[in-house]
Amino acid sequence: MGPSRSANAAVDLAGLSAARGDDQLTALVTARINRRQLATRDGSRGELSQSSGPSEQVIAALAAARAAKLDIARSQIARRAAALAAAKTAAARAHDQAEKKARAAGTAVEMPVSGYRITAVFGQGGSRWARNHTGTDFAAPTGTRVGAVMQGVVISAGQAGPYGNQIKIRHADGTETWYNHLSKIIVTVGERVDAGEQIGAVGSTGNSTGPHLHLEIRPGGAGPVDPMRWLRAHGLSP
């Protein structure tokens, strides 16, 4: 007996078992009707489950569409990255050209030292000075390189009492920059120097409690002004 016949017999038997007396024939007919309805529902479910999922062609088409979108996105990202790199390169070239022009004109400005910490500011009072502090102190290890802040001519280089070893440079606009407490001086009077060119090294000569560069800025060779403000006005961020 096949599976379908066994199932039919089981349904018939269930119907007969549930019936009593003269109702057995009616129960048998009812059971067979229920069996046919059950078979019809099962067949419909099978057809529905087979037809509800996407075909292999649809799945392949969707995968191809997604791959195409990813290729487009990657291409757009690559173009944007290339444009950004080109813009950065152009900006760097423009900056370099501007610096070259500034150096040629003698207007480029650079920090005198690196790796420093500020230990005293302009106008600061205290027992270490007879009056308000006339410059900014850049503390750094002895021997740290000191460079000219701007192109100019050395007008003084030597020992200067409380200032210790000192260099004075006059620039094209008449401003003088003073570099004090140096451990060594490597330029001579009358020598022309460029912005950033080494002129000496940090020290602690003269009236000093530790190695540092005491920088003074004197526009027109007159009284001192705040070096930090002057440096910022010339595009630096000390």
Beta-strand residue percentage:
15-25%
Q: Tell me roughly what share of residues is in helical segments.
A: 40-55%
Order of helices and strands: HHHEEEEEEEEEEH
Helix/strand class: alpha+beta
> What's the overall geometry?
elongated
H/I helix tally: 4
Low-confidence stretches: none
Question: What is the number of beta strands?
Answer: 10
Mean pLDDT: 83
For the sheet with most strands, the description reads: 7 strands, antiparallel
- Give the spatial strand order of the biggest sheet: 1-2-10-6-5-4-8
| Terminal CA distance | 99 Å
**Alpha-carbon Rg, integer:** 46 Å
What do these coordinates show?
This protein has about 240 residues and is an alpha+beta fold. The chain contains four helices and ten strands; from the N terminus they run αααββββββββββα. It has helices spanning about 5-20, 25-50, 55-105, 225-235; strands at about 115-120, 135-140, 145, 150-160, 165-170, 175-180, 185, 190-195, 200, 210-220. Strand 5 and strand 6 (about 175-180) form a beta hairpin. Helix 1 (about 5-20) crosses helix 2 (about 25-50). About 20% of the residues are buried.
Give a quick set of tags describing it.
about 240 residues, alpha+beta, 7-stranded antiparallel beta sheet, 3-stranded antiparallel beta sheet, 10 strands
